[in-house]
Every structure is written in structure tokens, then in C-alpha cells.
């Protein structure tokens, strides 16, 4: 498969300096995406960049239209998607400045649309392995090359926000074994899987959330300062990742490329044509194929 690398820039990352390209507006039947996408090439790799909160950080984590964003990235041809996200640390050994290459998620969000599917076209995809190992390998290698302090593996707890956690919640999430906490990677990772896009996250630690006895409560000014410091390292990592990205790749070991193969359970005659039409980009591969 020909690789198109998608980058979702989180807090503090609203463009990709060095990416030669143009901003393109792509319409989606799922509503308004966060912004236009910046499409170009970096080290010969085709890249599509989307600022998750919109340029100027207009949108909070609950207001982001995750379905429209993933649909637009699918329409732009993205096959491999990397989320760059600010996060809090739930572990002593993951101090601010550490980049965690997450491999699991706990979804505690509750006020978001979480699926492209529903009445008139029901589908159930596996989320056992939400992150592509191969993409994680490439990110790990890129982190090494760019001198970024990284940690392979970790569980990201997605909370609704926009308020940060209480002390009791922070302790609870630590007891659950979560490593980092943020507000955006769910339902993004679920929707990427439904859209058959390989997904991985670089969770860039900005703070110790509220559990750490020596660090007190989360302070947005401190987060912004650390986020800005992390920004240069994130851009270096993307550059190295572009260099490490092959023009074509094998089938995703996490099953992303074929997630919908047997996932749609609604019989063809019971499907809602309006929903099927909206699913043209996300599920066109399986919905519009002709019987052998
Ligand atoms: C600015 S701190 C809180 C904010 O930052 C993270 O967003 P993103 O993942 O897009 O970098 C976090 O999830 C919150 O939305
Ligand atoms: N402590 C925290 N909790 C949730 N989201 C965050 N983003 C950055 N730090 C965070």
C-alpha cells in the first residue's frame, strides 16, 4: 500500500514548518472539521497535517468534530496517522519532556460521537490493539534519531475535560495502571480504526497531573511553557519520521487496513441509504464492492 502520513497536531502544534505545501479545504458529510489540512511533502513523504483544535486553538476537546476530522483525513488519502498530543503524567518515571509512544487507551469520555456507524448501518470493529506496531516502530526509531527522550508503550487515559482531574480521579487512574492522561485521543483512535487508518500517538508529557505530592495541582501556564518547549522536539521527530517512512508498506499488523472486512452486521437490504452515502470515504471499500 502507498503510504500517506497524516499528522494531527495537538495543543501548541498548529502548523508544520518545513512542510512544503498548501492549505486545502476538504468538505465532509460529517460536519465541520477542525480546520483545513496542510498537504505537502517532507523528505519525499506525502504528508497531510491537521491542527486538532483549529488554528488559533478555537476548539476545546469536547467541541472537536472527531468524525469530520478522520473523514477528511481519509478523503485526503491518509493511511498512517500520528497524533501529537500534550498530556499529563501519572508516573514518577515519566517527567515533563518525555514523549510516550502510547499503545493502549482507556476511554472515559462521554460527550462525543464515537462511531461513524449506527442505526441503518451497524458495525463492530476490534479495539484490542488500537495502535499500529509498525508505525510505533518507525516513531521509536525517529525519536532516537532526533534525540527525543521517549518511552515505548503506555496507556493513555482519555478524560472528557475541559477541567483537569480532581486529586481523587488522578489517584484512581494511577490505580488503574494508566500512564498518561489527556482529553483528545478518544474517540479519535476508535474512529481511525473504523476508517481503516493505522493510528499511533506520541503523548508529550507537560505536567504531573494532580497526584504528585511535590508538584501540586495542574497549572495551565506551566503546561503551555512545557508544551512550547516540547514543540521543537515534536517537529524534529516529525522530520525524522518522514525520513523513516517508506513509500509503500505491508499490511498493518494491528489489522487497521482490514478492520471493516467483517465488521458490518446490518444486512444490505436493511441499510439506510443516507447513512451508506455518508460512509463513502470511511467504508466505501467494503460497502461498494461487488460480489465476486
Ligand atoms: C493545553 S492542555 C489541555 C489540552 O491539551 C491536550 O490536547 P491535545 O491532545 O490536542 O494536545 C489535552 O488533551 C487537552 O485537550
Ligand atoms: N494533566 C492533564 N490532564 C488532561 N489533559 C492534559 N493535557 C496536558 N496535561 C493534561
Automatic annotation (TrEMBL):
Residue spans making up a coiled coil are: none
Q: What pathway or pathways are given for this protein in its record?
A: Amino-acid biosynthesis; L-methionine biosynthesis via salvage pathway; S-methyl-5-thio-alpha-D-ribose 1-phosphate from S-methyl-5'-thioadenosine (phosphorylase route): step 1/1
EC number annotated for this UniProt entry: 2.4.2.28
The Nucleoside phosphorylase domain covers which part of the protein? Answer: 5-241
Q: Which reaction does it catalyse?
A: S-methyl-5'-thioadenosine + phosphate = 5-(methylsulfanyl)-alpha-D-ribose 1-phosphate + adenine
Offer an example of a GO molecular function term for this protein: S-methyl-5-thioadenosine phosphorylase activity
The family line of this record is:
Belongs to the PNP/MTAP phosphorylase family. MTAP subfamily.
Question: What NCBIfam families does the entry give?
Answer: MTAP, PRK08931.1
How does this chain assemble? Answer: Homohexamer. Dimer of a homotrimer.
HAMAP family the record matches? MTAP
Protein name as it appears in the record: S-methyl-5'-thioadenosine phosphorylase
This chain's source organism reads: Acuticoccus sediminis
Gene (name only) = mtnP
Amino acid at each position: 500500500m502507498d503510504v500517506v502520513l497524516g499528522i494531527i497536531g495537538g495543543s501548541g502544534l498548529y502548523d508544520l514548518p518545513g512542510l512544503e505545501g498548501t492549505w486545502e479545504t476538504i468538505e465532509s458529510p460529517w460536519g465541520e472539521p477542525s480546520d483545513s489540512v496542510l498537504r505537502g511533502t517532507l523528505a519525499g513523504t506525502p504528508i497531510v497535517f491537521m491542527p486538532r483544535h483549529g488554528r488559533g486553538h478555537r476548539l476545546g476537546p469536547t467541541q472537536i468534530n472527531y468524525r469530520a476530522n478522520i473523514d477528511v483525513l481519509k478523503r485526503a488519502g491518509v493511511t498512517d496517522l500520528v497524533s501529537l498530543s500534550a498530556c499529563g503524567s501519572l508516573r514518577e518515571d515519566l517527567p515533563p519532556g518525555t514523549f510516550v509512544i502510547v499503545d493502549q487507551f482507556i476511554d472515559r469520555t462521554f460527550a462525543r460521537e464515537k462511531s461513524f456507524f449506527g442505526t441503518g448501518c451497524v458495525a463492530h470493529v476490534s479495539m484490542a490493539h488500537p495502535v499500529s506496531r509498525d508505525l510505533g516502530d518507525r516513531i521509536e526509531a525517529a525519536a532516537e534519531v532526533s534525540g527525543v527522550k521517549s518511552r515505548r508503550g503506555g496507556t493513555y487515559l482519555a478524560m472528557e475535560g475541559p477541567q483537569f482531574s480532581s486529586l481523587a480521579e488522578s489517584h484512581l487512574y494511577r490505580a488503574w495502571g494508566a500512564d498518561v492522561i489527556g482529553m483528545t485521543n478518544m474517540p479519535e483512535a476508535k474512529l481511525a480504526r473504523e476508517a481503516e487508518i493505522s493510528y499511533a500517538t506520541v503523548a508529550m508529557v507537560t505536567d504531573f497531573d494532580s497526584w504528585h505530592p511535590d508538584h501540586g495541582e495542574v497549572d495551565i501556564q506551566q503546561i503551555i511553557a512545557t508544551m512550547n518547549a516540547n514543540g521543537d522536539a515534536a517537529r524534529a521527530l516529525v522530520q525524522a519520521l518522514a525520513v523513516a517512512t517508506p513509500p509503500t508498506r505491508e499490511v498493518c499488523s494491528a489489522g487497521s487496513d482490514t478492520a471493516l472486512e467483517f465488521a458490518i452486521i446490518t444486512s444490505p437490504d436493511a441499510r439506510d441509504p443516507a447513512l451508506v452515502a455518508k460512509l463513502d470515504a470511511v467504508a466505501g471499500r467494503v460497502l461498494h464492492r461487488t460480489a465476486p
